[in-house]
């Protein structure tokens, strides 16, 4: 590796938000060497949040969601080609087209993909969709514009709920099937998820909770016609959207020796990847949805996040550290923030609501669907969720960052007493019992891979 970290060869695997922002930041930090960005999609980097909102509503075409470049990163873009392997000893990324890319430093930013329907033949029926990519959104928007009789959405996390909201806004009948007790329960806990269930039903959604879809049905022409549910009921529909959460794109790292598994690639707070023995690497960094990193506010557990703001912040920290020697390196300690617009309300969250045992409605009104819910764990504030009251998010973020006591002091925010006099259980479910996955998850202290150390006898 060259002595000057601003020179040499850097490869970024992942050409989405984190990859682009890291490339820009590397140049901003004075990196003058060769920069290569690899992406498995043929499109330049684009924005994903509009795909489940404006694109499905027909307000924007899928092809108009490209991310603006804040500066030209002067990179060699290898788009439409997949990374298939990593040789960390020889410092090479292996590509699906047979090429090998040498590197001095590598950034892994491969993100996630939509979890597919497990039955391949059923998933291939005409009318069955997932929503993750620009192409997915374009195809689904076209089908919704054709005016289907009914849409079945399997999974009631944020993506599934936003799809259902778009369908109702278009006047399309929609059924939502969720294995858990309520929509968004994996992100917000059971107490606040009751509000999400009420919202969906108030907007005419046929919401089925506590059930699973056992089979997708099709006709002889291979068109989707409906589904069978675990309670014995049947749904007739001509479009089905699978919204079962995300799969982290780590398969290409299987033989790399890195701590990569179902929860992502483990790294330290400086975005340096761990190997599977827990030793930190000096030349491989991780950023975005594919990463797992320790956070001091949450007992140094490994945090996995799937949201826009984290991808940007972590990519910039990773880029800075890739071209900085030891002492000037920075930690990525951003508090998770995510948002969603659905069924006429704006939901924003700061912290980790599922890292909680109690919740209190601190401001606003459940009946008016305008409130702030504050979450606590073992006597300190760990998260806050606002519904149409986003201006208070910054206030509660400071309370989280300073480990303020839970429940918050009555009247501290706006001079009014707490809406709920006593804290309620936050009712965080076991993720195994959900159709959708959480967008923010604490995944323990250890890398995913478990090693059996075999010692010779004698």
Automatic annotation (TrEMBL):
User: For this protein, what is any one GO molecular function term?
Assistant: oxidoreductase activity, acting on NAD(P)H
Cofactor(s) recorded for this entry are: FAD
Which Pfam families does the entry link to?
A: Pyr_redox_2, Reductase_C
Keywords, A to Z, come to: FAD, Flavoprotein, Oxidoreductase
Q: Where does the record place the Reductase C-terminal domain?
A: 338-409
Where do transmembrane segments lie in this chain?
A: none
- Domain FAD/NAD(P)-binding, chain residue ranges per copy: 9-315
A cellular component term (GO) from this record?
cytoplasm
Does the keyword field hold Ribosomal protein? Answer: no
Query: Sorted alphabetically, which InterPro entries does this protein's record hold?
Result: FAD-oxidoreductase/Apoptosis (IPR050446), FAD/NAD-bd_sf (IPR036188), FAD/NAD-binding_dom (IPR023753), FAD/NAD-linked_Rdtase_dimer_sf (IPR016156), Reductase_C (IPR028202)
Entry annotated with the keyword Flavoprotein: yes
What is the recorded name of this protein? NADPH-dependent 2,4-dienoyl-CoA reductase/sulfur reductase-like enzyme
List the source organism: Streptomyces echinatus
